Amino acid sequence: MRSRSSKSRARRWTRPCARWLLGREAAALQALEAVPAVAGRVPRLLACGHGVLVRTWLDGRPLQEARPVGDIGYFRAAR
């Protein structure tokens, strides 16, 4: 499954920030590809250019739904 982000969907006045954030996400995903410990645990960058970023999608649940309430180990590991 793929996910596509595009700066053109942002409001005109936010596009410079959207372009900057898109570039940062692409750089982070490229850097993480070289780290064996995170292989398969982060999305892979499939394509990036002309204000569009395409990456793989990871199954999971958003934290606001999963709510790891009372799991001290989870919060300690997140530090």
Radius of gyration: 15 Å
Secondary structure: helix percent: 25-40%
Question: What structural category do the secondary elements indicate?
Answer: alpha+beta
What count of helical segments does DSSP give? 3
Poorly predicted residue ranges:
none
Largest sheet: 3 strands, antiparallel
Name the shape in a single word: globular
What distance lies between the first and last C-alpha atoms, to the nearest angstrom? 30 Å
Order of helices and strands: EHEEHH
For the secondary structure, the number of strands is 3
| Largest sheet: spatial strand order | 1-3-2
**Whole-number average pLDDT?**
83
| Beta-strand percent range | 15-25%
Explain how this protein is built.
By secondary structure, the protein is of the alpha+beta class. It is built from 3 helices and 3 strands, in the order βαββαα. It has a 3-stranded antiparallel β-sheet with strand order 1-3-2, covered by helices on one side. The relative contact order is 0.19.
Briefly say what this structure is.
With 79 residues, the protein is of the alpha+beta class. The chain has helices at 15-33, 63-66, 72-77; strands spanning 2-6, 45-49, 52-56. A hairpin with a 2-residue loop joins strand 2 (45-49) and strand 3 (52-56).
Question: What structural keywords apply?
Answer:
79 residues, alpha+beta, 3-stranded antiparallel sheet, 3 helices, 19% strand
Topology readout:
Layout: E1 2-6, H1 15-33, E2 45-49, E3 52-56, H2 63-66, H3 72-77
Antiparallel strand pairs: 1-3, 2-3
